[in-house]
């Protein structure tokens, strides 16, 4: 793996605005940096990143199955007890997922190390799936990169194909997308996902999280009083569980993206649980849950 310097494209900020990349600069600081790029060998991509990603994903699913059958583990993962059945039923029913983002540390030598499974509210989709491809094409066209340059990246095609699958698994429902107000990066991410869903032929709508209402029958509604039956929300489950409307979760017929069982995978307790189940795994870092002082004293006195 090599980190190689490259000149910025002329007027790339104008091009970003043209293509809807409005969060290329945030809080007065550059968010997108194209002063360098990384060059990987095919073996590094396939053996050091892609294969561990698939393996870690399956290991994470093993964690979900184990945690949902153990009340003590559900408490350690801080899942509110009133939502245990809601999360369990989501897993047992096989509620489908759209995507996850595994974050690794990797230097080009040795195994990649998992930092986080951002399984509930991952961003960076627009940058990876579209803008990065445009960067490549522009630099090839201006001969800043060799003509044979390529990316190991088919994210956009995979998202569209996954939406096609989800439409088959969730027939007869229109898909609502939601994020919070005043979050330009989140809104850009959600808009990109809406475009992918539209390409897959899914009728979709947008509503801000703050504008979601509830009718007299306890169904969630948008600003046009349309009942929400299928929703992608860029808003974490740990917040949803504790919102004023949290008591309604599981009482109405909503299919969620991401599904409630993702509350286990996006949890900070995931890494210690992975280390406990798969100790010494080359792609894991030693991780442990901090024990409360009261529990530690009880164990010592015992």
**What would you call the structural class?**
alpha/beta
Order of helices and strands: EHEEEHHHEEHHEHEEEEHEHHH
State the total count of DSSP E strands. 12
Largest sheet: 4 strands, parallel
Query: Which runs of at least 5 residues are low in confidence (pLDDT < 50)?
Result: 293-302
> What is the chains' assembly state?
single chain
User: What is the number of helical segments per DSSP (H or I, 4+ residues)?
Assistant: 11
Radius of gyration: 21 Å
- Termini separation comes to 52 Å
What is the approximate shape? globular
Query: If strands are numbered along the chain, what order do they take across the biggest sheet?
Result: 8-7-11-12
DSSP helix fraction = 40-55%
Mean residue pLDDT:
93
Strand content: 5-15%
List keywords for this structure.
globular; 302 residues; alpha/beta; 15% strand; disordered C terminus; 12 strands; 11 helices
């Amino acid at each position: 793996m090599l980190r190689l310097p490259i000149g910025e494209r002329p007027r790339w900020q104008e091009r970003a605005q043209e293509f809807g990349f409005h969060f290329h600069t945030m809080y007065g600081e550059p968010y997108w940096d194209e002063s360098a790029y990384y060059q990987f060998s095919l073996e590094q991509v396939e053996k050091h990143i892609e294969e561990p990603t698939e393996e870690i994903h399956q290991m994470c699913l093993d964690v979900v199955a184990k945690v949902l059958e153990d009340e003590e583990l559900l408490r350690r993962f801080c899942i509110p007890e009133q939502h245990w059945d809601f999360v369990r039923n989501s897993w047992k029913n096989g509620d489908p997922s759209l995507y996850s983002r595994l974050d690794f540390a990797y230097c080009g030598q040795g195994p990649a190390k998992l930092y986080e499974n951002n399984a509930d509210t991952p961003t960076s989709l627009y940058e990876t799936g579209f803008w990065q491809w445009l960067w490549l094409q522009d630099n090839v066209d201006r001969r800043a990169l060799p003509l044979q340059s390529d990316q190991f990246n088919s994210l956009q095609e995979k998202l569209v194909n996954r939406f096609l699958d989800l439409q088959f698994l969730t027939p007869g429902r229109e898909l609502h997308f939601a994020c919070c107000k005043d979050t330009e990066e989140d809104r850009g991410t959600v808009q990109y996902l809406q475009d992918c869903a539209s390409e897959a032929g899914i009728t979709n709508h947008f509503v801000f999280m703050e504008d979601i209402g509830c009718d007299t029958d306890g169904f969630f509604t948008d600003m046009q009083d349309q009942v929400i039956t299928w929703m992608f929300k860029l808003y974490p489950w740990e917040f949803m569980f504790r919102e004023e409307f949290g008591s309604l979760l599981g009482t109405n017929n909503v299919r969620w993206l991401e599904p409630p069982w993702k509350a286990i995978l996006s949890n900070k307790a995931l890494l210690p649980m992975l280390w406990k189940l798969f100790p010494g795994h080359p792609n894991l870092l030693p991780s442990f849950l901090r024990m409360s002082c009261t529990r530690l004293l009880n164990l010592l006195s015992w």
